[in-house]
Amino acid sequence: MAAGGGGGGGGAPERPYELVVFGASGFTGQFVVEEVARAAAGGELRGALRWAVAGRSREKLQAVLERAAERLGKAALGAEVGVLLCDVGDAASLAAVARQTRLVLNCVGPYRFFGEPVVEACVENGASCIDICGEPQFLEGMYLKYNEKAAEKGVYVIGSCGFDSIPADMGVLYTRDKLKGTLTAVESFLKVKSGPEGSCAHDGTWKSAVYGLADQDNLRKLRKKIGYAPVPVVGAKLKSRGLVFYNQEFKEYSIRFMGSDGSVVKRSQCYLHTELQETPVQYGAYVNIGGLGSVIKLMFAGIFFLLLVKFSFGRKLLTKYPEFFSAGFFTKKGPTQKQMDGTSFTMTFFGEGYSEGQDPQYGKPNVKICTEVKGPGMYVSSS
């Protein structure tokens, strides 16, 4: 979500840092720190990067910097990396951090509980804010509440800058650019592969899913308040697939992707259409899950999950015992380094449209295209 149309930074030149990673000692934050350190040391940036890590514990932050240095084969990251103490529950400390940087990269989730104070501090103090959130309620709620003020301040608030939903959003744009003609519809299919160590996910992701599915009614109300301009359907209408279906292209079953990809891509297409008069692209997001056995397991687990999220006591059980209710896939410790090193994803995009010179308003699509986006597992990709 681009929340401002101003100067793109809003920060005064004398601010000591260009970037602060907030929540740097968290599970995903540590990988973000590693990637920032790699970029800063790689010589690809214009000049030295002035950056800092921020969180509640100096000891944990120092440990994260030491880990990043070790992963990069360095003795230490050096004094150029600042260490700032702040707490998401302490508005004054958040404001102090925001005043010291041009950009805050927020890794503290679930964002529905901990995200808004960071956005507010950034907007109030002239710093841009990006996050790795995959929670549509939070993303669209922040747009409704802070869009105008961020524009006045000349700063940006941009969500979903990680695995959710850069591969999907940029993949659609890449597919559009590669088609010789007018792209009108795209479906994406996500496939995650694990190595010999298997795979699992951190319970922070699980919590976001639990509370997100429980709050679908409020999301619909929120979208009514925003009043999105309807995006016209150009070309043949993209048919909606079933909740579970057999995918002939991959010879396995697929389900709808329940994350933020659909929401983010739709809002990007809405912006491109209304602001830049570009042809909007219809989009459907799916996940490949495997054979019939996987479908049966998922159906039973899904029914049980959906029943529990409807009630407060059910949500407490789900978030207290993620490993039990997810059959070991979501854990409080998250995946090991070996598991992450062996995990990768492929997102395949199937697009259709109209050749150059053909009016998309008439006839059926006559050109197709297939593209792929590949990368490491979700936590490394988010960094």
UniProtKB/TrEMBL annotation:
GO cellular component: lipid droplet; mitochondrion; plasma membrane
Keyword annotations from UniProtKB, A to Z: Membrane, Transmembrane, Transmembrane helix
Highest taxon above the source species: Eukaryota
SUPFAM superfamilies linked: NAD(P)-binding Rossmann-fold domains (SSF51735)
Classification via InterPro entries: NAD(P)-bd_dom_sf, Saccharopine_DH-like_oxidrdct, Sacchrp_dh_NADP-bd
GO biological process, one term: glycolipid biosynthetic process
TM spans (from-to): 283-309
Domain Saccharopine dehydrogenase NADP binding: 20-158
Similarity section: Belongs to the saccharopine dehydrogenase family.
PANTHER family: SACCHAROPINE DEHYDROGENASE-LIKE OXIDOREDUCTASE
Entry protein name: Saccharopine dehydrogenase-like oxidoreductase
Organism: Aquila chrysaetos chrysaetos
